[in-house]
Specification:
9 helices; seven-stranded parallel beta sheet; Rossmann fold; alpha/beta; five-stranded parallel beta sheet; globular
Length: 309
């Protein structure tokens, strides 16, 4: 069982890690703007020659996420690479050499928001409107404002009966946008699975995408790499499954469980409840957000330095 240690800021961990795998939504930004102190923290990591890989379950390709981050003020110079579930899915659908992409066929029934079909660009794939014509289903996003999960049941029942496989290019169960939360593509895929359909998930928490990230670090052993995320189900479980240390951010998708002004013991109790809810998975570290150092901690450090003079 992992013992959780609560931290005041990432500066406390600098002697322990040289590489960092950072989640996007819920850690770096909320879809609309970066969280406070994120740019400061990334600059501190850069100045200390730490290597940062951003890992997202985004179903968009890597370069699309680079452009999104730019618009939010997070420039490419602050990190080494962006890895996305969408990029891995795109490469798999392009090559169709390895499972689960091997032998899929070309007719694709796509579930996505109307403005979010760019994942098919450059692929030898034929979009179809009728599930009866599909060789496989691809889900990369879900328009929760336009429909409910149950609205897809008729399509899913037909697809399950025909044994049509689904590729889920974003396993996130919840989509975070600003302060709003809605069912994510992972929840849609889970619904298909409940109705008897076969689902292949691309992204966190599955080992393949973490192993891909590990290969991007230069001269850093896995024990010196930390995974930071706000989802116990995806980031923390995925990092633990890849034998990596993890840090949980309380201000992301689980923010409603951590009220302002909570005492340390209350936070610890809430973390234990969350861990039990996800099979006992516990992070190595817990932080309120991706901050370098809280004002209180900085004040204490200045006081200690003054006393040494």
């Amino acid at each position: 069982m992992t013992n959780m240690t609560f931290c005041q800021g990432l500066y406390e961990l600098m002697d322990s890690y040289d590489g960092f795998i950072l989640d996007q939504w819920g850690v770096l930004h909320n879809g609309l703007q970066p969280y406070e102190s994120v740019l400061d923290t990334l600059n501190h990591l850069k100045n200390r020659k730490k290597q940062v890989v951003i890992l997202s379950n985004s179903a968009k390709r890597g370069q699309d996420n680079v452009e999104r981050l730019k618009k939010l003020g997070i420039k490419p110079g602050l990190y080494k690479s962006v890895v996305t579930a969408g990029e891995v899915a795109w490469q798999g659908l392009k090559d169709k050499k390895d499972p689960p992409f091997q032998g899929l066929g070309e007719n694709c029934y796509m579930i996505s928001r109307p403005d979010d079909r760019s994942l098919l660009s450059g692929l030898d794939v034929v979009p179809v409107e009728n599930i009866e014509d599909a060789h496989f289903i691809l889900i990369n996003s879900f328009d929760a404002a336009a429909m409910k999960l149950e609205d897809l049941d008729p399509v899913f029942k037909t697809a399950a009966a025909k044994r049509i496989p689904m590729i889920c290019a974003n396993p996130d169960m919840v989509t975070l946008y600003g302060h709003e939360r809605a069912p994510g593509p992972g929840a849609v895929a889970a619904r298909y699975n409940e109705l008897g359909g076969a689902v292949h998930y691309i992204g966190k928490p599955h080992k393949t995408i973490f192993r891909y990230c590990l290969g991007l670090f230069e001269d850093i052993i896995p024990s010196r790499i930390l995974v930071i995320g706000d989802s116990i189900q995806h980031d923390i479980a995925g990092g633990a499954g890849a034998d990596l240390d993890t840090a949980f951010i309380t201000a992301g998708i689980h923010a409603s469980s951590f009220k302002p002004g909570m005492l340390p013991e209350q936070k610890r109790k809430m973390m234990e409840q969350l861990a039990l809810g996800y099979g006992g998975i516990r992070p190595t570290w817990v932080l309120d957000g991706l901050v370098w150092q809280t004002p209180e901690a900085a004040l204490r450090e200045r006081e200690r330095a003054r006393m040494k003079e």
